[in-house]
Amino acid sequence: MRHSELKYVRVRDYLRSLVTHELAVGEAIPSERLLCERFGVSRMTVRQAVDALVVEGLLQREQGRGTFVAPAKMDLEVRLASFGEDMRRRGMEPSSTVLAAEEVAATPDIADALDLLPGEQVFYLHRVRFADGEPIAIEQSWLPSRLTPGLFDDGPPASVYGELRRRGLEPEWGEDTVAATEVDARDGELLGLRVGKAVLRLSRRTFAGQVACVYSRSSYRADRYVLWVPLRAPKRALTPHATGDGQPAGGEQTDIGPSTTRAEQ
Amino acid sequence: MTDQAATILAALGGVANIIDIEPCTTRLRSEVRDATLVDVAALRAAGAHGVMIAGRVVQVVMGPSVDTLASEIDDLM
Fold it and tell me: How much is the ipTM here?
């Protein structure tokens, strides 16, 4: 079995390099027959190689037509911009369908994310977000009613961040958590994805100064997005300067102790 | 806001309980000797938007002010 596994890897890597360096989006890859001849392998081995790249999202099959180079995935940058702002920056036209816009009582998880007590009133906005007419994400947002009275009086705002700024609440910082999940039937239908396809689920808390002003949960199509995260080395950890008798224990230059195991969040 | 720094340091169990403290963009991340000495309610009262404890690592959600806060805590250690 090992031998054929290696053959499949060779075909796959060849195709990957072809897709990355030579073919344009929408172009067809060489036929199965051609690949069989070129690598001296069976059709099954070629299919295995193509399947792998279809799963990765580099290729897409169109029934009866062939296999083509898939559009490149967009970088989903974890930054504090709204969906609309982000799409315009990419030169795409954002639009939305509103599924729900109502005032509801905060459930405990929503209350916790917004520094509220369970049962306090929040505005709830549920939207499908489109880029150039294509469904990209489903987004649910909650805002404390106290903070944004009358939010839906003139219909739901086109931009939540825009509306916050208009009210003097500048979104300044936040935290995202990202999880991979399978899309459920309802969201799948809205996004044009088969049930069981992957989505990236982002949960975001947005703050203006020290005020939690939006909590949102979004599901982004995993076939169109990759997560892009800028990294920096952590700042030097600070350690206590002195022991009980006032003697310096290690000073400010102390590195992170070699024996400490850091649990990631 | 040195008061806040002192309150947070106390809520983490005081200097004696601190192994190290590190500002991480929006969170103050600290490794402590004894996590049971951490007073979550006091951290929330001091302005934390969340406290996550995993083993001996305590993460306190404070926002971008965390850099300043960490250096003020450093002055108290």
Answer: 0.87
